[in-house]
Amino acid sequence: MEYLTIKKSNTRDTATLAGLGMLAYRIFPDSECINIQLLSGAQEESTIPFKDGERFRLRNSELCLIIVD
Length: 69
Description:
The protein is mostly beta strands. It has strands at about 1-5, 10-15, 20-30, 35-40, 45-50, 55-60, 60-69.
């Protein structure tokens, strides 16, 4: 499992994960969800609850969302 660490204050940003490459995310505070889009290779995206410890899958990899202040 890989961990995606996101700062609460950054509503839009990018990150790089060793197993998946670069991704972009956007936090939607109104609906309390986050959209995560994988940018490398065939693009893939997922919208999940914006909740610490939320687990989800992208390109057959399990990820865990870690939210920091």
